[in-house]
Amino acid sequence: MIALVPGGNAPVTSGQVYVKIDYTPVPNADIDVSGFALGAAGKVRGDGDMCFYGQTRVLDSAIQMTESSAGLAVFVLDLSRLESGIDKVALTATIHENKASFDRVSRLSVSVGDDIVADIPTTGMQETALILGEIYRRAEGWKFRCVAQGFAGGLEPLAEHFGVEVAASAASTPPPPPPPQGKPSVNLSKVTLDKSRSSISLAKSTADFGEIKVNLNWHRGTSGGFFSRNRAIDLDVGCLFELKNGSKGVVQALGNAFGDLAYEPYIQLMGDDRTGSIDGGEWLHINGHKWSEIRRVLVYAFIYEGAPDWKQTDGVITIHMPDQPDIEVRLNEEGGRYGMCAIAMLENDNGAVKITRLVDFHKGHSYMDKAYGWGMRWSAGSK
Amino acid sequence: MALSLQKGGNLSLSKTDPSLTKILVGLGWDPRATDGTEFDLDASAFLLNAAGKVRGEADFIFYNQLRSVEGAVEHTGDNRTGEGDGDDEVIKVDLSLVPADIDRIAFTVTIHDAEARKQNFGQVSNSFIRVVNEISGAEIVRYDLAEDASTETAMIFAELYRHNGEWKFRAVGQGYAGGLKALANGYGMNF
C-alpha cells in the first residue's frame, strides 16, 4: 500500500481500476464527486467528458460512476480503453452551493485500486471545490497524483479551470475588455438599464458565453432585517423561454418547473441561496454554451404572497456574465395592483445577447404571455 | 533528445558537447491555477572550493545576489509566480571565467517559504530544471520536478565540477530538508 500526500504520485498498474472517494458527510451540505476527462491542455472537449451523478457513463463507458451516495463515490476506469486524446482524468469534489468549505469535511480519502491511498488534509481549507487527484499518462503507463488543490469559489471556477462553461481564452490570456458598442474606455463595471438607456447588446467575444446568471434581490420588509425572509413580501423570479427549435415554456418555482442547465431549456432556477450575505435572493442560470439554441428569455418577478407594492420591494435584477460588466435593472416603477413584473428580455440577436429593460406590470402569467406574444396556455397552480 | 537524468549519473561535458563553454540552467513552472498562495520556485548556484564550501558570501548566487564577482555565474532575475512560457528563472555560467580555486558549481532549486505554505514540487504544475548549451541552444539534461521530486521542497539539482582538467556534469537529484537556508549553510554559508 502506498500512502500519498498532496503532490505525491504513484504508478497505476492495472488497466481497469476502481477509484473510491470516501468522506465524512457534512449536515445540510451535499458533496458532489465528479470525474473530468481532460485533453492535452487540461481541458474537457465537451459535455461527454464529464462523469457525475447526472451522467454516470461516459466515453463509451470507459469511465463509469458506479456509486454516488452521501459519504462514498466509486468510479470504474478502464484506462486501456481511454482514447489517446485523453491525457488525464481529474477527480473532484464540490460542496453544493458552497454551503460549507472542506474544512468541515473531517475525512476525505481517495483510493486507487488496492495499492494507493491518499488522505487529503482538510484542516483549514477554505476551498469549496477541490481537485482531489488525477490519473495521468506517463511514459506509456498511467500514474495517480494526489492534488488536493481547489477553489474557494466552488464549482464555477473549478469548471472554468477544466474549460467548462467559460470562453476558451479565459485560462491563458487576460479577458478581453468587454465590447461596449464602440466605446471601450467607458466605465463598464456596472451597466444600469433605465428609461434613458433601455437596452444593451453583448457581442460574442470568443467561443461562447459562459454561464449567464440572473439574480433577483429585494428588500424583504422592515421587521427581521434585510435578509430574514419576511412574509410580507415574497418575490419569486422566473422566466418564459423560447428556443430556436420552437419549444416554449416557463422556468419558475411555482409548479416545480425548475428547468435544467445541461438539457433543454438550458435554463435553471437555482433556488434560494441564503448562505452568503451578498449572494442572497433568487438565482436563474442560463447555460451560455447553449445560447445559440435559445431565441429569447423573458425574466420576470412575481409576488407570491403579500401586497404588490413594487416600489417598496426595492427589487433589483442583476445579470452577471463572465468577462462582461454586470447589468442591473431596478424595479423602481409604480406597479399598481398587479402582482407580476416583466423585468428584462434577453434575445438572441445573431448570436449576441441583447438585453432590454421592460419593467412593466401584468395581472398574471397569461396576460404577460399575451403582451409579449409567447402563445402558451396557462392554468392556475400553487407552490 | 536531452538526456534523462539518472540520480548520480555524470557525464563529461567536454566529450558530450565539446563546444560547451556557456551554460544556461533554466528553471520553469506554471503559475498556480487554483486558489491559494502562489508557487515561488527559486534557482540558486553555489561556487565551491575543493572542500565543497563557498569561499565567502559572494559565492552564493541567488535572487538577492545575482552575479558572481568575476562574472562567471549570473542569475537573470527572480520570478515569483512562474508567469510566462519556457524558463522562468535562468542562471548563466561562463566556464571560461570560473576562478581557478573554484572546483565546482552546485545548482539548487527551492520552493520559497515551502513549509509555511505547505507546498512541494509535486503540487506545482510542469516544474522542471534543465541545462542548456547557451550557444547551440541544445538541451543537455532535464529534470521533471513534479514527477521525480514530487514531495520534496528543496533539491540539489546538479553540479558542474572539474576533473582532470575538464568540466564534468553530475546529475545529483537529491532532496534536501530545510529549504534554501539549510542548503546554504550546508555549503558553508552562515545564516
From TrEMBL, chain A:
Residues 11-162 form the TerD domain. Keywords: Tellurium resistance. One of its GO terms (biological process) is response to tellurium ion. PANTHER family: CAMP-BINDING PROTEIN 1-RELATED (PTHR32097), TELLURITE RESISTANCE PROTEIN (PTHR32097:SF3). This is Tellurite resistance protein TerA. It comes from Marinobacterium halophilum.
TrEMBL record, chain B:
Pfam families: TerD. Keywords: Tellurium resistance. GO terms for biological process: response to tellurium ion. The keyword Transmembrane does not apply. This is Tellurium resistance protein TerD. Residues 1-187 form the TerD domain. Belongs to the CAPAB/TerDEXZ family. Not known; seems to contribute to the tellurium resistance (Ter) mechanism. Also involved in phage inhibition (Phi) and colicin resistance (PacB).
